[in-house]
Design goal:
The protein folds into four domains: 100 residues, no CATH class; 107 residues, no CATH class; 54 residues, no CATH class; 66 residues. It is 64% helix and 0% strand. The two termini are 57 Å apart. The N terminus and C terminus are likely disordered.
Length: 382
């Protein structure tokens, strides 16, 4: 039996050449009349780019499927909407159930809903290629009421761009209108309203579809870091703790303390910039070493200005430091600038004020500033 099964696996899947083998201990994976299902498997393989094993798995999940008629109708329907073949295949991979969904009764009204929101043609195809599982939701009971709620939160959302951003990130926000409304009310009770609520929805939509207990736990963690609901930074703290585990937060606080900062100083830094905790261990450590040991800033300076530790050392901080050092050595400046102020300048202002203005030395200064980018093949192609 083993050798026969091995032989069968090598046979091409075709309705012209089929053997169905049964043993007393197993049932055939195809029906006793395999031709229609073989045609279905063949269609899934050729049109939707599934492997034969994936196609067989799909039809086993949907035992009522007997022929390729419905998948063919779905393919043509999506194609007529402007989907590329790649988007059609991705849509089916994310949501195989679409292959056996009634086009006229179910798919047409749901797709019209998204078209009316502004998603058409290839944009609709790209969205559904990653988010087609959203189609599992009832149009009238879930999609319409939930989207109405989301649109009220998303301020000045031209062409519903932010709405589609939210749905692309986590379309579970439309699964329960009651949960969505409840979580919004809870967040508003924590002082997160208006533009802050809108920004939180865009950045972390999963918070809006979390279980109530999970959301309250995140709020408690933000409180434990020293934030109160009347702080304008509370929403940033909530977002930060939603991205990190307690272990990661403690590890980064320990790293700050290793540079001599007290617990109170660490809390002061976090209150000024909660996102500091989202800075990687490596970047945080390198930043601390550079500002404290190379630039020789006083330790308390970073307590009041922790955001400097979040700037890119490689692309911003160190290149600007090199430029200022060259200018100091050549005495090009009448008054030595505050290095921290130069770090905060926009790219255009820095180039104008500290490079372009000094024409006789501009080339040397520019090489000092951009040389690391010229040496990097990755950055040459970006």
């Amino acid at each position: 039996m083993q050798s026969l099964n091995s032989y069968l696996r090598k046979l091409p899947l075709s309705s012209k050449n089929i053997l169905v083998v049964c043993s007393p201990f197993s049932s055939p994976s195809l029906s006793s009349n395999p031709e229609p299902k073989l045609a279905l498997i063949d269609y899934l393989v050729t049109s939707f780019n599934f492997s034969e094993s994936q196609a067989l798995s799909i039809i086993n999940r949907f035992p009522r499927a007997k022929s390729p008629d419905n998948p063919r109708a779905v393919f043509l329907f999506l194609q007529n909407l402007g989907f590329s073949t790649a988007d059609i295949q991705s849509t089916a991979r994310v949501f195989p159930q679409i292959l056996f969904t009634n086009v006229e009764k179910t798919l047409t009204p749901k797709f019209k809903f998204f078209q009316d929101l502004g998603l058409v043609g290839s944009d609709l195809g790209k969205f559904m290629s990653k988010s087609s599982s959203i189609l599992t939701n009832s149009l009238d009971k879930k999609l319409v009421p939930s989207v109405d709620i989301l649109k009220k939160i998303l301020l000045n959302d031209e062409n519903n761009a932010a709405l589609f951003q939210v749905l692309s990130r986590d379309n579970r926000v439309v699964q329960s209108e009651s949960k969505l409304s409840s979580n919004i009310a809870f967040l508003e009770s924590c002082g997160i309203v208006g533009s802050q609520l809108s920004q939180l929805l865009k950045r972390q939509p999963r918070l809006f579809c979390s279980a109530e207990s999970s959301l309250k736990d995140l709020v408690s963690r933000a409180f434990n870091l020293g934030f109160s609901v009347d702080s304008r930074m509370f929403v940033h703290a909530l977002y930060t703790v939603s991205c990190l585990s307690d272990a990661t937060i403690e590890r980064r606080l320990k790293l700050l303390r290793s540079f001599g900062y007290s617990g109170d100083e660490c809390m002061e830094m976090l209150k000024a910039a909660p996102a500091l905790l989202r800075t990687s261990d490596k970047k945080l450590k390198q930043g601390m070493k550079f500002f404290l040991f190379t630039v020789k800033l006083k330790k308390e300076v970073l307590v009041g200005r922790p955001s400097f530790l979040m700037y890119s050392l490689e692309d911003r901080v160190i290149p600007r430091y090199r430029v200022i050092q060259i200018m100091k050595s050549k005495r090009l400046l009448k008054k030595e600038p505050s290095f921290l102020r130069t770090v905060k300048l926009t790219e255009d202002v820095f180039l104008e004020k500290y490079i372009s203005k000094f024409r006789d030395h501009a080339e040397e200064l520019l090489v000092a500033y951009k040389g690391h980018m010229l040496d990097s093949p990755e950055k040459q192609g970006s």
